[in-house]
Amino acid sequence: MNNLWHPEKSLDRSGFTLIELLVAIAMASIILVAIAGLFQRLSRSYTTQNAYADLQQGIRSTLDVMADDIRMAGYNPTQSGVSFGIEKAEAFRLRLTVDRNENGLIDTAPAGNEIITYLYAPAQRSVQKRWSEGRPQQTSQPLFGGTDNPVNVIFLSFNYLDGNNQPTTILSAIQAIVITLVAEEPAGRANDPTASSAGMVRRTYRTRVECRNL
Fold it and tell me: What are the boundaries of each domain within the chain?
């Protein structure tokens, strides 16, 4: 009978108060912000690692091309008396000759692939490859990097070693060449402290190439 006189006591008072609801919303917001931050960091790390891998692959491919030509420098199967080998051995430029068609001559045409030059072009931020440099048939193209390419080549150098692994400037004494290549590439918001500007990642690669035919 008491419930008849006090009907409010029979009402279900379960549910959330306004304060509880506000606390739940605040906690959910904090969790969502933390998840969003974690996702952003993971996404940035993924982008950065992809940029590092892409840049490293580009550098290694470039050095592989250069190494193949350097190993062929001086190739002269006919022993015709024509001098094949290293024509220029500078810090930022290397020019070599090779008798690819085995005719005993240094041919400048049609392809010009018996006189090959590699050099660093800072204005174009690239590694340049030239054929028949200094001859009327000279042609050139960026091998890596360039103004229309996101990759910036920061540094390219050649160090020349003799048979005793000592530095040398004597062309006929060169037995090995050490190539150093430094390049950078955009990676979103990544910030590599070694890069020249924010949002870039940088890689440095060095390889030694033995001159088999010198």
Answer: 39-210
d(CA 175, CA 89): 12
Residue 42 is given by DSSP the state H
**Spatial distance between the Cα atoms of 65 and 113, rounded to a whole number of angstroms:** 13
**Spatial distance between the Cα atoms of 43 and 38, rounded to a whole number of angstroms:** 8
Q: Which residue has the tokens 């440099």?
A: 133
pLDDT tens digits along 16-49: 677 777 777 778 778 777 776 665 665 555 556 7
**Secondary structure element (H or E) that encloses residue 7, with its range:** none
The distance of Cα 14 from the centroid of its chain, to the nearest Å, equals: 64
Helix/strand/coil for 143: strand
> Residue 208: which residues within 8 A CB-CB, separation 6 or more?
176, 177, 178, 179
User: Using CA atoms, how far apart are residues 43 and 24, in angstroms rounded to an integer?
Assistant: 28
Cα-based torsion angle of the residue sequence 45, 197, 150, 156 in order, rounded to the nearest 10 degrees:
-110
Per-residue pLDDT tens for 129-149? 999 998 888 999 999 998 888
Query: What is the rounded distance in angstroms from the CA atom of residue 7 to the CA atom of residue 15?
Result: 19
**Whether 119 contacts 94, CB under 8 Å:** yes
Cβ 203 vs Cβ 56: under 8 Å: yes
- Give the distance from CA 127 to its chain's centroid: 11
H-helix or E-strand spanning residue 178: strand 176-186
